Design the sequence.
């Protein structure tokens, strides 16, 4: 599921980017059964090493990212498993943690419960969402004075797994400015998956339309088509203040001009008037990086107008790109340049010294089955998280392994409960796929 939503909060329109993904921490490596076999050690003891721990799944807030678009194309993430133990008490290698980078401002939720796991609102914030399984112990751990050659070891624990929802609320990174009906909505529809209203009359766009521009993997940004600006907007004419409040929050501007003159206006004058309105409203706003997109190059005689327009605008210190939003010509080049400027702006931003990165740790509540015993078709079935975990490591045809299992069941009170239920010698007891006959 991937949703794009615009929220109106007062006069601020925010972009909500949502993705649902599956994460799986690495499983722990199995411990092994091994014995010393050196030439000059006649009575070599158990020497099976422990398995390595599985890798964790960790989310990290990265200021270089702007959207959650990449999670639309990849929805399953898995950390590395721990390796099996080795002979001579060699510990298996731990699995590598999986680092998943997300934009600053990403909220992570447990998809099943809706619980907020972490709010990564600062650069470098980390959230350990899924924990790797513990490695199983090798047979060296089970040696005692009476059990000197244990032929069993533990299997590694499974890593955590869960579905999480990533939710990002941001303002648009790049804003489209220009007179009404110059092709901003068409540009947005070509550049992103947004579907704004497009028609041949002024003020088609009453509210900001937003979409995601995908440059390449890990490189994307939010683009806004903001209501058209006219002369006098700084005094509130047209959609004046509403427009300017939105554009003030963007970091880069793409100024679209109808270079064909198809609406009966002079392109250079249009450009100058729009920038004058920006200066009147806010001097800082007029200083934002601005790319000039000379639109409607597909129309007759546009090329002749373009050469004159480009010469005048470049004298003012602006970059000019010829485009046709209707055909898509030149749009990609403008978007790539906007992304470059956006990265430069973000690098130049000062991060508060006291906003130190934080680490969030989440432990998903696991289902723990209590110890239960029931009789079914003459078989006593024992269930429970603790007893099943031990049963997975039992070697039935090994005397020491089975004896260890019996002692464990006795300490857990399983045999006492079986007697209370009236078990008789020769009756069958089953735990998972382990079956044995009961005898006092």
Sequence:
């Amino acid at each position: 599921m991937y949703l794009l939503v615009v929220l109106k909060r007062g006069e601020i329109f925010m972009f909500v980017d949502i993705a649902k993904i599956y994460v799986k921490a690495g499983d722990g490596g199995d411990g092994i059964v091994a014995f010393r076999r050196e030439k000059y050690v006649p009575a070599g003891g158990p020497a099976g090493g422990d398995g390595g721990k599985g890798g964790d799944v960790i989310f990290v807030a990265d200021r270089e990212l702007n959207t959650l678009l990449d999670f639309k194309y990849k929805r399953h993430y898995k950390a590395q498993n721990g390796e099996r133990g080795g002979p001579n008490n060699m510990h298996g290698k731990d699995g590598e943690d999986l680092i998943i980078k997300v934009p600053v401002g990403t909220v992570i939720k447990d998809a099943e419960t809706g619980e907020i796991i972490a709010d990564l609102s600062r650069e470098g914030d980390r959230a350990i969402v899924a924990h790797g399984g513990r490695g199983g112990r090798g047979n060296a751990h089970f040696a005692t004075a009476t059990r000197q050659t244990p032929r069993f070891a533990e299997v590694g624990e499974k890593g955590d797994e869960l579905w999480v929802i990533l939710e990002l609320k941001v303002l648009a990174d790049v804003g489209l400015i220009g007179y009404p009906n110059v092709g901003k909505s068409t540009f947005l529809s070509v550049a992103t998956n947004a579907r704004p209203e497009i028609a041949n009359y002024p003020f088609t766009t009453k509210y900001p339309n937003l979409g995601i521009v995908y440059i390449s993997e890990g490189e994307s940004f939010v683009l806004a088509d903001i209501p058209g600006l006219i002369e006098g907007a700084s005094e509130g004419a047209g959609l004046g203040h509403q427009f300017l409040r939105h554009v003030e929050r963007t970091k880069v501007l793409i100024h679209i001009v109808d270079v064909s003159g198809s609406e009966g206006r002079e392109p250079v004058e249009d450009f100058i008037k729009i920038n004058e309105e920006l200066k009147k409203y806010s001097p800082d706003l007029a200083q934002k990086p601005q790319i000039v997109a000379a639109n409607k190059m597909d129309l007759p005689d546009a090329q002749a107008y373009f050469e004159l327009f480009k010469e005048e605008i470049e004298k003012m210190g602006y970059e000019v790109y010829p485009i046709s939003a209707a055909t898509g010509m030149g749009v990609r080049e403008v978007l790539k340049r906007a992304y470059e400027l956006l990265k430069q702006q973000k690098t130049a931003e000062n991060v508060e010294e006291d906003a130190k990165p934080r680490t969030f740790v989440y432990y998903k509540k696991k289902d723990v089955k209590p110890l239960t015993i029931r009789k079914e078709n003459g078989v006593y079935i024992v269930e429970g998280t603790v007893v099943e975990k031990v049963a997975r490591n039992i070697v039935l045809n090994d005397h020491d392994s089975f004896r260890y299992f019996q002692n464990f069941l006795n300490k857990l009170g399983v045999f006492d409960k079986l007697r209370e239920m009236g078990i008789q010698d020769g009756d069958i007891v089953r735990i998972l796929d382990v079956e044995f006959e009961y005898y006092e």
